[in-house]
Amino acid sequence: MRAAVLREGTVEFGVVDDPVPGPGQLLVRSLACGICASDLHYMDNPDAGIDDDSGMSTYDQNVDIVMGHEYCAEVVDYGPGTDRRIPVGTRVSSLPVLATPMGRKIIGQNPESPGGFGEFLLLDESITRVVRSDLPSEVICVADALSVGWSAAARAQMGTREVPLVIGCGAIGLSTIANLKRLGIGPIIAVDFIASRRETAMAMGADAVIDPAEISPYQAWRDVAHGSPDTTKDMMAIAALPGCVIFECVGIPGVLDSIVKGCERGTRIFSSGGPPEGDHLHTLTAKRKGLNIQFGGGPLPAHWDDAFHAVCSGEVDISPMLGRTVGLHEVAEALDASRDANGPARIVVVPGKE
User: Which of 116, 120, 180, 227 could staple 185 via S-S, CB 3.0–4.6 A?
Assistant: First the structure.
């Protein structure tokens, strides 16, 4: 099959063997696949998973790897032992995890689990979902990106006396905002250095946007959540003030630590960023402030299904997140373009595009 192939840290157009479906697997044709920041993290940091003994993500620089884990695809064939409940030709998507004899693998992050930057890939039939929508595949494929922030917002279970602060308005931050808005939580305060991203955050449901070059995000949060500075002078009044829930959606070293040092006492932090090179945290400061930090972990399956349904049904309009589409010959250039924070949240690869 034709594919954008990662080898020795670079991506080039090439031809690799077609994947063969094993027990319980489907062979599908990739119709559209979003480029995610984690694709860049994966290819740029081959040693990032060296301490991860799960085997879900491996990177052998001397072996061809086809990335891409945000896909909409079409069923082509069945492996042995499948129920064949989904007819050939049906559009589908799934959580990007493949069950193999060697254990579970992240699709697009192993040689044996190729992703959507090629003509064909394999899916686990048991978790494959049918696309019940007339929306284009370029829209449907973004559901996986939506599910990450969607899951963080759902897991936060925010109360009526809490005000959210979303730091970073890439795809994860935008999807967090979208679900917070759907859940009726607000006011939603979003933070990003890039003007275009702040505009997109407003389109996705933010109530206020902050440029951290102009004002501290934490002071901006206090201005919105607490109002007059007089309310913080009395201890009883402080106890009745809204609590802070911060969603860290950046993934650059130092950001989470800056949150620890700058946020309110008792803040709950949901960290979805996760820089691959790791980070340093002032844990003593976190202890003194009584902070609660929840690290990502990926979307829960139920939350992935909810986000997928929200996209397919049109309940959430993700068009503000979308940029251009590219063919397989253009993937290397598009990956570089995805590094530009001024660009759209998603560039989408369409393998059939010439």
Answer: 180
Question: Do 73 and 121 touch, CB atoms closer than 8 A?
Answer: yes
Give the pLDDT of residue 110: 92
- Strand pairing report for 70-78 and 91-94: antiparallel
Integer Cα distance of 218 and 263 in angstroms: 6
Is residue 218 within 8 Å of residue 263, measured between CB atoms? yes
* pLDDT computed for residue 347 by the predictor: 96
Q: What is the pTM of this model?
A: 0.90
Domains (ranges, CATH) in the chain? 2-142+319-349 (3.90.180.10), 145-295 (3.40.50.720)
Mean pLDDT of all residues in 121-143: 97
Q: Compute and round to an integer the Cα radius of gyration of the chain.
A: 21
Q: Cβ contacts of residue 161 below 8 Å, gap of 6+?
A: 242, 243
Higher-confidence residue of 119 and 296: namely 119
Q: What is the 3-state secondary structure (H, E, C) of the chain?
A: CEEEEEECCEEEEEECCCCCCCCCEEEEEEEEEECCHHHHHHHHCCCCCCCCCCCCCCCCCCCCECCCCEEEEEEEEECCCCCCCCCCCCEEEECCEEEECCEEEECCCCCCCCCCCECEEEEEHHHEEECCCCCCHHHHCCHHHHHHHHHHHHHHCCCCCEEEEEECCCHHHHHHHHHHHHCCCCCCEEECCCHHHHHHHHHHCCCEEECCCCCCHHHHHHHHHCCCHHHHCCHHHHHCCCEEEEEECCCCCCHHHHHHHHCCCCCEEEECCCCCCCCCCCHHHHHHHCCEEEECCCCCHHHHHHHHHHHHHCCCCCHHHEEEEECHHHHHHHHHHCCCCCCCCEEEECCCCC
- pLDDT at residue 14 tops 60: yes
- Alpha-carbon distances, residue 224 vs 204, 237, 238, 246, 262 (angstroms): 19, 16, 15, 14, 16
How confident is the model over 240-266, as pLDDT tens digits?
678 999 999 998 999 999 999 999 999
